[in-house]
Amino acid sequence: MSGTCAQGHAAQRLFRFAAGPVPIEKCLRHALVHRPLVRNAVVTAAVVGTVLTGINQGNVLFDGRFPDQLWWKIPLTYCVPFCVSTWAALRISMVRA
Fold it and tell me: pLDDT tens digits, residue range 23-42?
């Protein structure tokens, strides 16, 4: 399937977003930076990432320790729900032929 992005260029895949009374369709590049989608993904990552960090690393953090491996584990813990939220929003908004 191909069409025209709301930004005026051709797109292989389109994603439809509610934008007032008329929905708009965007290509993947513009859908990934669609403000409401990004805002929702950031909020989801903040909430879920904090809960998961508390569950998985809480005992170490409450002991006052911060081992070197937490420098990559904690950011990854926030990155995963951000990516899942973004992926789910894109799957739901995908325009089907």
Answer: 999 999 999 999 999 999 99
**Residue spans of alpha helices (H) in 1-97:** 28-31, 35-62, 70-93
C-alpha torsion angle, residues 58, 63, 69, 71 (rounded to 10): 70
List the chain domain ranges: 28-92
Helix (H, G, I), strand (E, B) or coil at 17: strand
Q: What is the pTM of this model?
A: 0.86
- The total of other beta-carbon atoms located within 10 Å of residue 85's CB is 19
To 5 degrees, how large is the angle CA 68–CA 73–CA 74? 100
